[in-house]
Write a structure and sequence with these properties.
It comes from Myroides pelagicus. The protein is elongated. With about 100 residues, the protein is an alpha+beta fold. Helix content is about 55%, strand content about 20%. The chain has one domain: Arc Repressor Mutant, subunit A (Orthogonal Bundle).
């Protein structure tokens, strides 16, 4: 099997974005605070990767309030779920063919 880099999604080249997507794939949604704690990231670092995923339309953002505090939650879009599953499937296929 030839390795075709074009079949890997560039958005998921970064381990942080893979971590974000992994967390969101198994949860209906996660708050900014939850993702920050889950991935042990700074606000700015997490925000830039979330923006990249949002711009790619792989995640949706919901802003609201809990009491007087703002609460931003993120969820995977159908397009994001499909793209991430395809990315993982190609990686799994590569691993299976190396063995």
């Amino acid at each position: 099997m030839k390795f075709n880099l074009d079949k890997l999604n560039k958005v998921f080249d970064n381990r942080i974005r893979v971590g974000i997507m992994s967390g969101l794939m198994v949860n209906e949604s996660l708050s900014f605070k939850d993702l920050k704690e889950f991935l042990n990231l700074t606000d700015g670092n997490l925000a830039s990767h979330l923006k990249n995923l949002e711009d790619s339309e792989y995640i949706s953002v919901t802003k609201g309030f809990i009491g007087r505090k703002t609460n931003t939650t993120y969820a995977v879009t159908p397009q994001g779920r499909k793209a991430f599953e395809q990315h993982l499937a190609y990686l799994e296929n590569i691993i299976k063919n190396i063995k």
